[in-house]
């Protein structure tokens, strides 16, 4: 198929299915499936106001309902979730359901800070160190 054709599935032509922008941030999450008694602690690879992605060797089935506890600066945000994507031996995408207005606001504030690598917030200390290190490296190379 001709790459200039309007029917060509190029990256720029694909429709983004996500409703909310993702932020690449590692946040500890307690996942508890309806099918298990013990929660599993994992870390996010990305997070948005609508859901998250976690890397897991043993992935959960799509449609599995979960109870989630996200740890944002030592404050737990609780919500329900449903597994919406499954990449075998890689991870799961989880959509938030039943999040309270208060917890949604906490998450929104956290994401605003986490998305800004120059923020003074402690959650971005590693990102700021990376940026500072890159700037110092660029100065040395100049």
Q: Which sequence of SSEs, written as H and E, runs from N to C?
A: EEEEEEHH
Shape: globular
Give the uncertain stretches in residue-range form: 1-15, 121-142
Into which percent range does the helicity of residues fall? 10-25%
Helical stretch tally:
2
Structural class: alpha+beta
Biggest sheet strand order reads 1-2-3-6-5-4
Largest sheet: 6 strands, antiparallel, barrel
Q: What is the annotated CATH architecture?
A: Beta Barrel
N-C termini distance = 46 Å
What gyration radius follows from the Cα positions, in whole Å? 18 Å
Q: Which CATH C-level class is it?
A: Mainly Beta
Q: How many domains?
A: 1
| Subunit organisation of the chains | single chain
- pLDDT average, as an integer? 78
Draw up the topology in text.
Layout: E1 28-33, E2 40-47, E3 51-55, E4 65-72, E5 75-87, E6 91-97, H1 101-114, H2 125-141
């Amino acid at each position: 198929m001709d790459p200039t054709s309007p029917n060509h599935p190029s990256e720029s032509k694909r429709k983004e299915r996500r409703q909310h922008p993702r932020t690449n941030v590692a946040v500890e999450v307690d996942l508890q499936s309806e099918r298990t008694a013990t929660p599993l602690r994992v870390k996010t690879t990305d997070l948005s106001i609508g859901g998250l992605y976690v890397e897991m060797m043993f992935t959960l089935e799509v449609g599995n309902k979960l109870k989630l506890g996200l740890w944002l600066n030592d404050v737990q945000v609780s919500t329900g979730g449903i597994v919406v994507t499954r990449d075998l031996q890689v991870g799961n995408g989880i959509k938030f359901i039943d999040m309270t207005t208060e917890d949604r606001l906490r998450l929104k504030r956290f994401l605003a800070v986490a998305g800004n690598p120059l923020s003074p917030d402690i959650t971005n200390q590693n990102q700021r160190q990376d940026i500072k290190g890159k700037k110092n490296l660029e100065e040395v190379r100049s």
